[in-house]
Amino acid sequence: MMPIFIDKKSKSFRMDTPGSSYCMQVSQYGDLLHTHYGGRISDMDLSELWNQKREFSPNPAECGDRLYSLDVSLQEVPGNMTGDYRTPSVIIKDSTGAAAVRFQYESFRVYEGKSELAGLPSSFCGKKQADTLEITLTDTYSKVKAVLIYTVFRDMDMITRSVRLINEGEKAVYIKKAASSCVEFADSRYELVSLPGCWAMERTPQRKELFQGRQVYESRRGASSHQMNPFLALVRPETNEVHGQAYGFSFVYSGNFMGEAEVSQYGTSRILLGIHPQDFTWKLETEEAFQTPEVVMTYTDQGLGAMSRNFHDFYRNHLCNPRWMDTRRPILINNWEATYFDFNSARLLEIGKEAVELGIEMLVIDDGWFGKREDDTSSLGDWVVNRRKLPEGLKPLVGKLREMGLKSGIWMEPEMVSKDSQLYRKHPEWCLHIEGRPCSTGRSQYVLDLARADVCEYLFEAVDQVLSESGFAYLKWDMNRHLTEVGSVLLGTDRQGEIFHRYVLGLYQILGRIVRAHPDVLIEGCSGGGGRFDPGMLYYCPQIWTSDDTDAGERMMIQYGTSMVYPPSAMGSHVSACPNHQTGRTVSLHTRGMTAMTGGFGYEMDLGKLSLEEKEEVKRQIEAYKQYAELIMHGDYFRLVNPDEGRDICAWEFVSKDKKKVLVHYVQMRGRANGPLHILQLQGLLAAERYQEKKAGLIYHGDTLMNAGLRMPLLMGDFQGYQFYLEARDSNVG
Ligand code: DGJ
User: Fold this and answer.
1) Are residues 675 and 604 in the same domain?
2) Is residue 522 assigned to a domain?
3) Range of the structural domain that residue 37 is part of
């Protein structure tokens, strides 16, 4: 049955997922009010909930009484300067220069399935998997329409929302702000979970109480950023991993964003997410439309773990390219931390020979193979082979690796140009810049102006040529600096505020073309590690390099935070050398393997330096990954112990969808001579099923494993890992 209900009499809308309801109602004055998002409800007319009389709150001109004010109403698309003083979701400057806007209800339409969003990555589904409700509202004076687009999924607790603004006036208007989602809550007894970080320490969860006033979570760097992820969770103070209400909001966008949480004078809360309004102005000519990216929302009363699993299932099945969801990704060796810029074909072939003997399936040639790149100061933009390092060129090298039994992958950083490059000398005007102002450098490089069609065309051709000529099976798409002096010479002065967004649209356009032209090339997203780890990139790149910090101890934390929203299948993760290049820490090879096995698995070290014993361990890891890949990539993911909890341990678990296969990764982060007892309670099992753990020869029922738990061994040393696998007794797989 279609889960969208409409009551024409009370002008109410309700969208039901299996475990949630999202409700709206048109007020007697035409404003679209938000009436409920949370657990399932059965009624439609909720007008009793929102009629309030308040002092010092303006009343719209036509309503003539003091019973009604936008300032106290919970709304779906709050406007600006028309009586609501909280943060608006849309600001439009009309042809008179005024920035007042109030959207009022006009019509709705409902259809099966979901439409694509022009020029933007967005979730997809079959016709019978979801239904869409579009509500059209108008601002009478500027003649701008807002179409609110909601898609509600039939079998998942997921709702997406975006907004399309259409100028039906006779003159151009300027969009100053266009949030993709706005959800209001009747109280503020909530906490916000966000994912801040920095380079090499991305997505470390932070939890803060709401307070009267506004909290802002943002990136203004031109990329979604290491510093803050485009995600917010709203939870009750008592919510934990396994219990309690949790709302998740995830933004399918890779550029500047802003998440806002505002608690009003009356204790209600407003949560907004969308393109960042600072440095953003979009000129909308008559009859033109502007489509915002979408926000994916979920609600559960089963804690943060269930919220994350909702996102994982959704992104695996409704956002990532299906081409990569059902195939095991190749286990790779990347030469970056083994050689940095100092390699040649002989060295790569040596690495390949060692790799293939250990069972590795692909060699990725990282930064330094092109132009005259000997360090990070030159050649970005010159995507022709460096003949000093690879005299025979890429194709013969790829051929030799193929003969050895290895696929090949290649690194590129297409969005950038080095000052010292042929491309920059030929087209200095192709980088983002403001006339008369010097350009800041970042890692000695400039950012190409992806708001320009000619630059996008050049980039597509450059990447296409590298991939087509040499037969690469994998592309690592890097981006190693953020945007500055964001000006574009081809756009008029009235359109300079569009560049940040046009840059992202240009990027999406190129990536879309590459994916269509090379459907069998696996693209791994990267931005100085995990600086653009977001659902927008995930649409094109089914895996993203999680962080430049490859230290297993740190990675446990980074992967813990990343898993709040993103499935393990999205996380590129490698075993690297010790002492680790970023932290100097030494972690056992076994633990490094277990940690890297939480996503797209690979190695990034000089394999020739491993002892025979270590090589045997690597072979065991590769076998284990092959055995468990299906479980890791498609199973349910449970965060059992938070590495940041102060217990000196960390644990995570993968459970197959039929709940019969279970893989547990346990790490003792600190060795103690006479340490505490650690009992690990598993999650997500069948209570009545008997599970066997072969290593320790144990057989226990699921309820025992979940409620009583399993005693973990005391291990010698810091960061010692213990990986174990359980299987339901009647299961004949594994
Ligand atoms: C940053 C990436 O995250 C690294 O893995 C590596 O590819 C370097 N860039 C190369 O410059």
Assistant:
1) no
2) yes
3) 4-318
pLDDT band at 661 (very low <50, low <70, confident <90, very high): very high
Bond into 121 cis (ω within 30): no
Position 566 scores a pLDDT of: 98
- Say if ligand 1 is within 6 A of residue 528 CB: yes
Amino acid letter, 419: K
Instruction: In whole angstroms, give the CA distance from residue 258 to residue 225.
Output: 12
- Please count the other Cβ atoms lying within 10 Å of the Cβ belonging to residue 211: 10
- Tell me the CA–centroid distance for residue 579 and ligand 1, in Å: 19
> 548 catalytic, yes or no?
yes
Residue 411 in contact with ligand 1 by CB distance below 6 A: yes
230 and 180, same domain (yes or no):
yes
- 672: domain CATH number is 2.60.40.1180
Q: Which of 634, 663, 682 is the last residue of a domain?
A: 634
pLDDT by residue (tens digit) across 678-711?
A: 999 999 999 999 999 988 889 999 999 999 999 9
pLDDT at 734 over 60: no
Of 271, 287, 318, the one marking the end of a domain is 318
* pLDDT of residue 288 exceeding 70: yes
Pocket lining: 545 vs ligand 1, CB cutoff 6 Å: yes
Instruction: Please name the residues in contact with 704: beta carbons below 8 A apart, sequence gap of 6 or more.
Output: none
Residue 655 lies in a domain: yes
Q: What is the pLDDT of residues 109-144, one digit of tens each?
A: 999 999 999 999 999 999 999 999 999 999 999 999
User: φ and ψ at 621, to 5 degrees?
Assistant: -65, -40
For residues 686 and 615, state if they share a domain: no
The structural domain count of the chain equals 3
Enumerate long-range contacts of 489-498, CB under 8 Å, 24 or more apart.
489/429, 489/433, 489/435, 489/449, 490/451, 490/452, 491/451, 494/283, 495/283, 497/174, 497/279, 497/280, 497/281, 497/282, 498/280, 498/281, 498/282, 498/283, 498/451
Q: What is the pTM of this model?
A: 0.98
Distance CA(504)–CA(257), nearest Å, equals: 12
Instruction: Answer yes or no: are the C-beta atoms of 271 and 183 closer than 8 Å.
Output: yes
Mutational test site, ligand 1, from 480, 482, 573, max ligand atoms within 8 Å of CB: 480
Beta carbons of 41 and 55 less than 8 angstroms apart: no
pLDDT tens-digit map of 450-461? 999 999 999 999
Q: Please work out whether the CB of residue 524 comes within 6 Å of at least one atom of ligand 1.
A: no
Q: Do 362 and 306 fall within a single domain? A: no
Among 18, 20, 19, 23, which Cα is nearest to 36's? 23
If phi > 0 it is left, if psi is from -120 to 50 it is alpha, else beta; for residue 30 that is: left
Q: Are strands 600-604 and 407-412 parallel, antiparallel or unpaired?
A: unpaired
Looking at residue 454, its pLDDT comes to: 98
Place of tokens 């809360």: 269
- Summarised one tens digit per residue, pLDDT across range 244-262 is 999 999 999 999 999 999 9
